[in-house]
Amino acid sequence: MISAPDVVAFTKEDEYEEEPYNEPALPEEYSVPLFPFTSQGANPWSKLSGAKFSRDFILISEFSEQVGPQPLLTIPNDTKVFGTFDLNYFSLRIMSVDYQASFVGHPPGSAYPKLNFVEDSKVVLGDSKEGAFAYVHHLTLYDLEARGFVRPFCMAYISADQHKIMQQFQELSAEFSKASEYLKTGNRKAFAVELEKKLKDLDYTRTVLHTETEIQKKANDKAFTHLRQLRKPMNWLV
């Protein structure tokens, strides 16, 4: 129970004022630097402060049969831009869903992979670990060395501002679609040239094997005829 003197002590502080206590100044080496965007009135607890990169950038990734999803390049190509942002982790994250899976491989009743023209896919995702939001554009390029002759690629516009991504979605979609068409047009021409070259190599190999087979067959026939001629005198002696 609180007694009368205790109540007085809480209600009449002016009668019991003490000398003001001044805390010693904190050494400079232990001081915490101010939030860098305080002049702009930003909230230091916002998601922007958790970003591991200094500005927006574009990440291009591919799927490799040997190592899986891997980053190819960033635009701009400057390590100062993406800082400590984990490109390998994010490449794995954005390519973890293989949207081409239903189009690639061996169709039922077919012994060979079927070449398909796959439509692009567009999605927006966020990653709290990296403090990042991204517009992600999936596309497929053709490669004779890849599984099913297709190699998945991904272009991502990465920003710490989710509102910017959502607000500019239509513009990002239009511009990335243009870039995708340029890549696919060049890739299809290069793929056609490479395919024609492989077909010529295959035809040349078939011709060489056919010629060698004919030569070997003639040599075998000649040897067999010679052997029969040698056997005739031996039969007469018997």
TrEMBL record:
GO terms for biological process: autophagy. One of its GO terms (molecular function) is guanyl-nucleotide exchange factor activity. Residues 48-238 form the UDENN FLCN/SMCR8-type domain. Keywords: Autophagy, Cytoplasm, Guanine-nucleotide releasing factor. It holds the Pfam family Folliculin. It is found in: Cytoplasm. GO terms for cellular component: cytoplasm; guanyl-nucleotide exchange factor complex. It comes from the Eukaryota. Belongs to the SMCR8 family. This is UDENN FLCN/SMCR8-type domain-containing protein.
